[in-house]
């Protein structure tokens, strides 16, 4: 396994990762948004690939202009590879790179109720839950993690 920078040649493979997570984690209507995101990346984006070069996951982050906040963007792993540690590997790499950049004091994300507990185990605090925000039965959970001195982590509310 390796994590490398996304290139435009990865677009279709990343869309296939997205498709593998519909309808439980994403809804079909979000595919167009994800495709547009891939075409105009607001920050670093990465792919996780196996030893044969097959894309198994993708995810990135963006620094919010004029702030010390980073937002995790479109992180996902192929559905059939959930619960194998790949999501953890991809997440931990993104968080390490945010810390290494040294520009963010807070990391935010929005996710569904299905992955909320994954982020809570890293100290993310849920600030708000909006029922059915993405689709019927698919809630939006806004979450934040404060980076103390960019080393340790402590859950925090909205700065």
Description:
The chain is an alpha+beta fold and 159 residues long. The chain has one domain (2-154): Aminopeptidase, CATH 3.40.630.30. The chain is 25% helix and 36% strand. It has 4 helices and 8 strands. The termini are far apart. 24% of the residues are buried.
> What is the arithmetic mean of pLDDT?
90
Which radius of gyration do the C-alpha atoms yield?
15 Å
Counting helices, strands and paired strands, the structural category is alpha+beta
> Which runs of at least 5 residues are low in confidence (pLDDT < 50)?
150-159
CATH class: Alpha Beta
Please identify, by name, the CATH architecture: 3-Layer(aba) Sandwich
Overview features:
159 residues, alpha+beta, Aminopeptidase, eight-stranded mixed beta sheet, 4 helices, 8 strands, disordered C terminus
Explain the layout of strands and helices:
Elements (H helix, E strand, L loop, with lengths): L1 E4 L5 H10 L10 H9 L5 E5 L5 E9 L5 E9 L8 H16 L4 E6 L4 H5 L4 E11 L2 E11 L3 E3 L5
Parallel strand pairs: 4-5
Antiparallel strand pairs: 1-2, 2-3, 3-4, 5-7, 6-7, 7-8
In short:
This protein is an alpha+beta fold and 159 residues long.
């Amino acid at each position: 396994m390796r994590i490398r920078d996304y290139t435009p040649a990865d677009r279709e493979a990343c869309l296939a990762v997205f498709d593998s997570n519909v309808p439980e984690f994403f809804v079909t209507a979000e595919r167009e948004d994800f495709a547009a995101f891939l075409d105009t990346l607001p920050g670093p984006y990465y792919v996780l690939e196996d030893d044969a070069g097959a894309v198994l996951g993708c995810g990135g982050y963006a620094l919010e202009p004029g702030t010390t906040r980073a937002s995790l963007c479109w992180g996902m792993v192929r559905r059939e590879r959930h619960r194998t540690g790949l999501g953890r590997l991809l997440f931990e790499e993104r968080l390490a790179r945010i810390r290494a950049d040294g520009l963010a004091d807070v990391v935010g994300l929005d996710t569904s109720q299905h992955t909320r507990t994954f982020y809570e185990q890293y100290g993310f605090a849920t600030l708000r839950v909006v029922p059915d925000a993405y689709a019927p039965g698919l809630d939006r959970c806004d979450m934040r993690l404060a980076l103390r001195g960019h080393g340790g982590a402590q859950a925090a509310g909205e700065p």
